[in-house]
C-alpha cells in the first residue's frame, strides 16, 4: 500500500493514552503527542484536529474524594476541574512548539441542528486557517445521560466527517483490532479491513479499557461508518512513540487500517449520516419507491410512494425511511410537517417529501 498525502486529519486520543495508571495526566506522553503533531504540521503543513479525552480522569485524580455526590454530579465536577488542567497542559506544550491550540467543547445536541453544525464547522475551519490546533472534547458538564455521545470515539467520527478530513486516527492503549483474544499468543492485529466487509465483527473484543467510556466495539463501529464516508480510519496504540507519523508514513508498525469503499458524500448527506438519534418520525415507503431511491437516478422521495407516517415532526426535522418490512433504508430532512405529509400520503404532491440532496441511504 502506497503512502497517501493527507491535507487534513483528525486524531482522537483516549483517556488511557493520556492518563497514567494512577489516573494523573501522563505529561511525558502528552508532550510526545504534542511534539509529533507540531512537527508534522511544520514539516508537511498537514492540518490536524485533536479530539482529546482525559478531562474526567484528570479531575478525578485532582479531587479523588467527593462530598456525598451522585455519579452525575461527580462527573460534572471532575470534568470541569479536569478540562482546565487538560487544556492548560496542552496549551503550555504547544507553546513550546510555537503553536497555539484552542478549546472546543461540544454536545451531541449541537450536531442535531444544521445551523449549529455549520457554526461549529466554521469555527474549527477558522482555527485551522489561522494555524491553530483545535482540541475538541465533549462538554461533559452539561452532557449527561441520554444527551451524551456514546464516547469520544463517536465524537471523533462526527468531527472528522464534518471537517472533511481525509483520515481519522483513533489512539487507545492497544495496537488495533485483534483476530482473537489479545492475550493469546497466536493472536495478531488485523492490518487491513475493508469497510464494506462485515466478517470481522466476530473478532471484536467486548472488553472496555480502564478510564475511557469507549471500547473496541464502538471504535470498530465508528471506524467502519466513517470509512464508508470515504475517510481512511486507523486504530492504533497511542502509547507507542511516533505512532501518528508512523501511520502517515505507512511504516511497518502494528495498527488496523479501515479502507473506504470509494463512496464520497456531500456535506448535507454526511450530516444526515450521523443524525439517526435525532429523527422525529418514521416514513414507510412501498416497493416501487424503495427501488426508485436505490436506483442510479438520484431520485427524491415522493409522497406518492409513502404508505405510512409515524410521529410528529416539523418541516426541516430529520425523519427515518423504512420499507414495508420495517428494514431501515436511510434518513432525510422533511419538506413538510407531519400533518401536511399525512394529508398527502400516496398523492402526487408539488414537491418531494425529501429532496435527494437531503437524504442519506444506508449501504
Ligand atoms: N469526555 C470524557 C473526558 O474527557 C471522555 C469520554 C470518553 O472516554 O470517551 O474525560
The small molecules bound here are: glutamic acid
Shape designation: globular
Helix content: 25-40%
Structural class: alpha/beta
Enumerate the spans where pLDDT stays under 50 for 5 or more consecutive residues.
Answer: none
Outline the biggest β-sheet. Answer: 8 strands, mixed
CATH level-4 homologous superfamily of the largest domain: Acetylglutamate kinase-like
Tell me the series of helices and strands, N- to C-terminal.
EHHEHHEHEHEEHEHEHEHEEEHE
* SS summary, helix count: 11
- By oligomeric state, this entry counts as single chain
Describe the structure.
- The structure is a single chain.
- The chain is α/β, with parallel strands linked by helices and about 375 residues long.
- It has 2 domains: about 260 residues, Carbamate kinase, CATH 3.40.1160.10; about 80 residues, Archaeosine Trna-guanine Transglycosylase, Chain: A, domain 4 (Roll).
- Helix content is about 35%, strand content about 20%.
- The protein is built from 11 helices and 13 strands.
- The strands form 2 sheets. An 8-stranded mixed beta sheet has the order 3-4-2-1-5-7-8-6, with helices on both faces. The chain has a 5-stranded mixed beta sheet with strand order 10-9-11-12-13.
- Strand 3, helix 5 and strand 4 form a beta-alpha-beta unit.
- Helix 2 packs across helix 4 and helix 6 packs parallel to helix 7.
- It is globular.
- The two termini are about 25 Å apart.
- The structure holds glutamic acid.
